[in-house]
Amino acid sequence: MNYLGFAMTVFAGFLAISNPIASTPIFLSITENETNEMRKRIARRAVIVAFILVALLCVTGKWLFALLGITLSALQLTGGAIAFIIGYKMLQGDSSSVQSPKASVLDSQDFSSSLDMAISPLAVPILVGPGTIATALSYSGRGGLAEVSITIAAFGALCVVTYVLFVFGQPLVRYLGRTGIRALNRLMGLVLAVVGVQLLLNGLQSVLVSLRG
User: Among 15, 47, 85, 159, which residue is least crowded by beta carbons within 10 Å?
Assistant: First the structure.
């Protein structure tokens, strides 16, 4: 198996569905009244919580499959469909309300502590939404320890990128502007739609192989 190619595919999938550049304006908006030090703490906690959640899902994925009677092909088909739908909406200029809550929803939330926002809505559902979960389980469940490790490492790399953007991304957001972020969002939508189609093809291939057997 080409592990380097697999790692790049997994990272591209996570990058497209989490889209940290598009998430950075949300982070800056809900932390606009915080100090720089508090922003760093919020960003650090958000990516750590997100990483732990995805790592646990990757490690326990096969056990969950067996417990619930879910086949890998079914998960790949479902994950591919979810990824494709979200990617298609991003291509049309729409964002998923599940993966990227709207500003009005964020404003209505009452945070008892500034660090609360690191868990919700930043870690869940912005960084770890349904699409991210489906992608992580689909890729980590494909094989053995190598696939699980690569999937976790790929999401860990995404968390590092996300943290850097959250903490130092204000000039980038200002430079790109709303138009630039929308264009980038559509590009990520295209990548995500392709990842979704590939997962669907993998799931269909698994089904055909099982039927032939």
Answer: 85
Q: Kindly give the residue spans of alpha helices, DSSP state H, lying in the chain.
A: 3-18, 20-30, 36-68, 72-91, 103-108, 116-117, 130-140, 145-168, 170-212
Structure tokens at 152: 């976790």
Average pLDDT, the chain: 85
Tracing tokens 């092909």 back to the chain, one arrives at: 73
What tokens appear for 24 in the block?
A: 């950075």
CA distance 89 to 160: 26
Length of the chain: 213
Tens digits of per-residue pLDDT, 53-73?
A: 999 999 998 888 788 888 888
User: Any idea which residue has 């957001």 for tokens?
Assistant: 173
Of 166, 164, 131, 142, give the one whose Cα is nearest residue 14. 131
